[in-house]
Amino acid sequence: MPFQKTDIPGLLVFEPDVFEDSRGYFFESYNENVFRQEGIDIRWVQDNESSSSYGVIRGLHYQLPPFAQSKLMRVLKGKILDVAVDIRKGSPTYGKVFTLKLSAKNKKQLFIPAGFAHGFSVLSDKAEVLYKCDSFYNKETEAGIIYNDAELNIDWQIPAQLAIVSEKDKSLPSLGQCNNSFVSEG
Question: How many domains does the chain divide into?
Fold first, then answer.
């Protein structure tokens, strides 16, 4: 099976079978049947793409119910450190941080269910990131956690003096102060 479970329930790493030869490579980046067999029965409604340079940190972002989003993250060019934080109240892994390097070379993808804050840092000169969402963007329900929250202590693998963070992301609250209505179902 192309999925690996992580130490946080619901968070999965997807490693597609890649077929390479002298012409290049081919792989299915998404196949509804394969995901359904893993219990992921999602209707993707929006694809987002971003391009960023080295040192950019985006996040930590999420949308509140009823517009909460599950995401399927992948990198088309370059390399990022993808970061997911469990923010489901009552979860045994509440506040736990998961990081994974995603790159155009390794072709790994990260499935992030609703109930997680998400962000990434760019580790290569440039990175192009593409991700699927199962809910449309809704400005009124967007929320987040500050990237340098002392409680989360995330190592973004970017020297502090080289980090490029938007003013909006710099003004997000801590995990303890964030607007969060997610509750663990487990």
Answer: 1
Mean pLDDT, to the nearest integer, of 172-182? 95
Nearest to 102 by CA among 117, 119, 114: 119
Rounded to the nearest 10°, the torsion over CA 9, 146, 123, 70 is 40
> Catalytic annotation on 118?
no
User: Rounded CA gap, 110 and 1, in Å?
Assistant: 15
* 92-148: pLDDT as tens digits: 999 999 999 999 999 999 999 999 999 999 999 999 999 999 999 999 999 999 999
Q: If DSSP codes are grouped into helix, strand and coil, which group holds residue 176? A: helix
CATH of the domain at 169: 2.60.120.10
Could you list the beta-strand ranges (E) of 2-140: 3-5, 12-14, 19-21, 24-26, 46-53, 57-63, 71-77, 79-86, 97-103, 109-112, 116-122, 126-133
Q: How confident is the model at residue 80 (pLDDT cuts 50, 70, 90)?
A: very high
